[in-house]
Amino acid sequence: MFGFFRTLPVTDAELGVLSHSRARWRGQLVLEGGSVPLAIAGGRDAPDPQALALARGLPAAWSRHREALAQALMAHYAPYQEAIAAGKEDPPIDPLPVVVRPSDVWPFVKLLAASVAPIDRKLVAEVALATAWDDEHTLGARFDASSFLELNGSILQR
Fold this sequence. Notes:
Number of strands: 8
Order of helices and strands: EEEEHHEEEE
Distance between the termini: 29 Å
Strand content: 35-45%
Largest sheet: 8 strands, mixed
Radius of gyration: 18 Å
Number of helices: 2
Structural class: alpha+beta
Helix content: 10-25%
Strand order of the largest sheet: 1-2-3-4-5-6-7-8
């Protein structure tokens, strides 16, 4: 009955079909050889053009800044490793992964989703990550059009 209120999907040459749902344009993004859910800011009529451009550039930004992200993930891992080794924290049920170098983190990181939306009034691309050493938090790797901004220790997925 209310089909005429429904927003029509948009097809992007790089991102594929995007459908408007829950105040975002939703689709899939190919990243690290897999596909993750993607949410992009925009109005009911179309995705925000700047957000769309940032989403299209996210795979290249990820590749370009992968080493810096690995270093940030290593810095996130180190306190867990140190606290368990010092007896300040109980060891996890599953053994803590052995991570010696930043490049060692990748087998223990799972990409969950990606979004492009304003955060603190600045348009940011964010990739939600789960790690084997921190099962209590979803981490957020944040990028702008030119750089890796930060690894946020706890985000809400959109």
